[in-house]
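Re-run requested by the PI after the first attempt was lost when the workstation crashed. Everything re-entered from the original request form. Ligand of interest: XIL.
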Amino acid sequence: MSTKQTLAGVVLGTSLLCLGAANALAADETLRSLAEKNNIYIGAILNSQWFSGGLPGNYEQIHKTQFNIVVAENEMKFDATEPNEGQFNYGNGDRMVKYAKANGMRVRGHALAWHSQVPGWVSQKYSGKKNELLRVLKNHIEKVVGHWKGQIDEWDVVNEAISNNEPMWRSQSVWYQGIGPEFIDSAFVWTHAVDPDAELCYNDYNLEQGINPKAKAGFLLEQVKRWVANGIPITCVGSQTHVEDTTTDKHFIGSPDSLRSLAKELAKLNIKLKITELDIGFKSGINVSKSDLERQGKTFREYLDIILEEPNADTYLIWGVSDKWSWLGGLNRQKGLIYDDNLKPKPAFDSIMVRLQNFEPPQDTTKQDTTATDTTKTDTTKTDTTKTDTTAQDTSKQAIAHLGSLEALSMHFAGRTLSVTGAVAAKVEVFDMQGRPVFSAKGVNGSVELKGVSEGLYIVRVRSGSTNLTQKIAIK
Ligand code: XIL
């Protein structure tokens, strides 16, 4: 890095510190810093391409700045970790665990007992042989969970074991066919025996389609009740929440409200709900408009509300970072994530950000999960550093004076006029308290009239270069 680049970095970083002091809502807030403030985890997978170094540098930069929980897209699955019988491959998983520790992130392990991505040798050698399959699954769990004991905070012990169409177990599974449904109970018991401190989840999709006994979540709820009554060591349900935008999927019957009712039922059993694989795609081939993307943002926010508001919900994990690297094409869907193909934040990102900024927890509820604060304890967040690091502020003033041309970004609001100083050409955006965009203007240099915005409370965001200022305003 050249001296000039280093100096520019210092100026930018430290001028943000000054802004932080001047404006309580300002500066370099991230999804991660806000999630930590709200005592929840927000995350994204590490895409498989990351493991082979096939992603641009800003992918990882975004990932570790914006998220505080991580899971591997494919690298801890059965076929990746035990490709041949008794031959274990932990290399990629180790890389992710190391990355997570270096960046103070929580780690999910995904997934131990699943019908998919099972290597060929399992069914070729042992199809229908109950005792052999029990031995194979037990050995796999003992080796894999044992390898990462104490390093993986939570495991998807069983993934997608319920049929999609009827309230029954999924029959197309080497484990179910050979062992019967008790493979599930056993998998939880074996995992717990190896790593008693890990949280253990049952994970599945289409759980946002209601909790009546004929729906998948209704069937699951009956099983969870039974597991809890029988002392099976399950602690959480993961809702994958791969959903499609409601206007392009005419048959879709799921909703955030239905998922919330599942969370409430699970709370009665002292079981957590986590959103583990969120994406909200549109049908492939359709033209996705700006208003489609805004509606998508609203749906992202509605699922986030469950995690913020339900005391037994603590995790909001998205199945990808950028639309460019997403599994959704295979589902005949597109554009389901919160960054676009160029790794630029989409309206869904803004919607999540604003909601995290403005969420005020109800007085009488606290999260059931006390571990949610653990990451924050070890993480030296940027806000903490700004508060104590006064030398940095002094240096920045000198550096700015020296360069002469840089002025700190600030905003001032009066009537309906927003004045911006210190920007070359700022982008001004206004969101309502639900995170919906209501106004935006580009190239602002001076002042702008917030036309067409009705009376009420809003959040204004001003962006110039990589500086980002936000402030709550009241329009009267
Ligand atoms: C997907 C991956 O994203 C793809 O790369 C892979 O080809 C197939 O699996 N439910 C799950 C995830 O539990 O493991 C799946 O991940 C998506 C659906």
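Saved to the shared folder this time. The chain has a mean pLDDT of 84.
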